[in-house]
């Protein structure tokens, strides 16, 4: 068991490398956990239809609506679980919601 | 010079705790372990230790407080028995999987029901798969010695697991016997200053989170790592025993072999019954009967290879369990000991005796009956019954 072992835990990490007792050394490491794999439905955002009302951004439970300079620029599919809240809240039907293949 | 004293098992354990002077003790009283936190709180009150004593409202809270304190980086101890241990159950697993080196005397008592406060091993045997190291103690001297060694075992960098030090309730806990204590300075020197490393909750240099959610991609790796620590413990226990022997002259192993060199019949036993059984072995030896005894000290990790070596040349072995696992196929020590012999080329006939439940007295006559059964098996080559209950009214 080593101290100060900053490891990024992935699905490749072996039992010899994993942190003892599941200790987490860095804040915000949930970012490294790709929950996008859980998705069965995929929201697709169409930039040309988007009015940039930003209603989707605060309701996303996984912070997966990507915003740059105050504008929606896309979806973080590494973390989007496909809950469809963004699809539902959008007043302009910007999103398609399709089965994940 | 060692200190000669007369102490009960509970006093011996509390004295060891005083000499260790842990940072935190969180405990709740339960018969027959009550005296341990009782004596210890007196040591706190009169200033002979500087431990933070946490008087909790249940054993679930006691073990939870121990987990928190240990995670924070403190050296932590507690004590319990029977239903108290049962109430700690879920937290026992958390302490072990979080790799927290907590040391806990378990004063063995029958687990309810029916409600009973007397000695058997149903409490600690139930916790055998919780991931704690388990040391068993024949008398107050061994309990004292095991507690001191347990601190080193638990905190060893290759182990980092909690340790239960078990001894028989009332039979040992409340019986006053001669004991040889170490001077406090020698105990302090032996256990050393606790170095929890950098991975503690109170280390501002390196903030960490402990006990996180661990889903299917990672949980298995953590359990495998925990299993390795238990495997490492065997070597560490022997190393520390050697160091302890150099200090005290008292020798400890994974188990004790009593007159086993040429034994043809033997019993395997834990805790205080070993003392009773040694009397019987001596008596039989005087009559020229080749009887021996194996007293298991370390039940977790289980000394599989070593027990196989010790028992493979014996003709018939009886394993004594002071707990029933209700498998309808013998007690837990029997099952594991018999499994350990499976890979031996020659192996003894092995039979199981469940005995002494709820504090039923075990006398030399009872043990003699077991050896007589074994000798009959050797003579006739016939096993009438593998799974037996000793001392119950038929």
UniProtKB/TrEMBL annotation, chain A:
A molecular function (GO) term: oxidoreductase activity, acting on the aldehyde or oxo group of donors, iron-sulfur protein as acceptor
Cofactor section: [4Fe-4S] cluster
Domain of life: Bacteria
UniProt name for this protein: Ferredoxin
Keyword Metal-binding attributed: yes
Keywords: 4Fe-4S, Iron, Iron-sulfur, Metal-binding, Repeat
Coiled-coil annotated spans: none
Domain 4Fe-4S ferredoxin-type: 41-69, 70-100
UniProtKB/TrEMBL annotation, chain B:
Any one GO MF annotation of this record: pyruvate synthase activity
Coiled coil: none
Superkingdom, natural source: Bacteria
EC number(s) recorded for this UniProt protein: 1.2.7.1
Span of domain Pyruvate flavodoxin/ferredoxin oxidoreductase pyrimidine binding: 16-241
GO BP, one annotated term: response to oxidative stress
Swiss-Prot/TrEMBL keywords: Oxidoreductase, Pyruvate
Enzyme class: oxidoreductase
Pfam short name (any one): POR_N
Catalytic activity: 2 oxidized [2Fe-2S]-[ferredoxin] + pyruvate + CoA = 2 reduced [2Fe-2S]-[ferredoxin] + acetyl-CoA + CO2 + H(+)
SUPFAM superfamilies: Thiamin diphosphate-binding fold (THDP-binding), TK C-terminal domain-like
InterPro entries tied to this protein: PFOR_II, Pyruvate:ferred/Flavod_OxRd, Pyruvate_synthase_PorA, Pyrv_Fd/Flavodoxin_OxRdtase_N, THDP-binding, Transketo_C/PFOR_II
Domain Pyruvate:ferredoxin oxidoreductase core intervals: 263-367
Gene3D superfamilies (UniProt xref): 3.40.50.920, 3.40.50.970
Subunit annotation: Heterotetramer of one alpha, one beta, one delta and one gamma chain.
Assigned protein family: Belongs to the pyruvate:ferredoxin/flavodoxin oxidoreductase family.
PANTHER family for this protein: PYRUVATE-FLAVODOXIN OXIDOREDUCTASE-RELATED
Stated name of the protein: Pyruvate synthase subunit PorA
Organism of this sequence: Caloranaerobacter azorensis DSM 13643
